[in-house]
Amino acid sequence: MTTARDIVSTRVIVAMAAERLADVAGRMRASAALHCVVNGRPGKFFGLVKLGDLLDCTSPGNRILADLVAAIRPVTVRPDEPAWAVAELIERNRVYEVVVEEYSGEYAGLITAESVLDWLVSEHRAAKAAPARGTGHTKDARSFARPAHQSP
């Protein structure tokens, strides 16, 4: 079963709250990151800075990341949460990112709507290829949102 840990986005950087945006900007450009996860101490999630949110800031490069963190705490899930449940959570709550936290509260990753879409597309391609492998099994796109045995 695909879980939240399996669909974490790679277009994310992690930085400490006391770091300046100017100091992490190079890492963001190099990784094509759209999100910066901010930790208060190593591994401890503090907040999230979205690249788009910086457009409204005056002199963001001179500010520390803790000042730029979104005021609303993001939705969180555990690493073993089924990927289909995370996709449904994103759709139901109309959010674009979900933070993955270990049971200890340590940051484990960030799932974005983009990474969920990537997973759904790969699942769809695998399902389309299944008949060619002789399984005689096909699925449509709706079957990826929730396993058939789950009730709505």
Question: Could you walk me through the main structural features you see in this protein, from its secondary elements to its overall organization?
Answer:
The structure is a single chain. The protein is of the alpha/beta class and 152 residues long. Helices cover 28% and strands 22% of the residues. The chain has helices at 21-31, 65-68, 83-93, 113-129, and strands at 12-16, 35-41, 44-50, 75-77, 97-101, 107-112. The strands form 2 sheets. It has a 3-stranded mixed sheet with strand order 1-2-3. Strands 4-5-6 form a 3-stranded mixed sheet.
Blueprint of the fold:
Blueprint: E1 12-16, H1 21-31, E2 35-41, E3 44-50, H2 65-68, E4 75-77, H3 83-93, E5 97-101, E6 107-112, H4 113-129
Parallel strand pairs: 1-2, 4-5
Antiparallel strand pairs: 2-3, 5-6
Could you list some keywords that capture this structure?
152 residues; alpha/beta; three-stranded mixed sheet; 6 strands; 22% strand; globular; disordered C terminus
> In percent terms, what proportion of residues is strand?
15-25%
Classify the secondary structure makeup into a structural class: alpha/beta
Oligomeric state of the chains present here? single chain
Poorly predicted runs are 147-152
Give the SSE string: EHEEHEHEEH
Question: In angstroms, what separates the terminal alpha carbons?
Answer: 19 Å
Number of strands: 6
The overall pLDDT average reads 83
* Continuous helix count: 4
The helical percent reads: 25-40%
- Can you summarize the main beta sheet? 3 strands, mixed
Order of neighbouring strands in the sheet with most strands:
1-2-3
Rg estimate, integer Å: 18 Å
Shape summary: globular
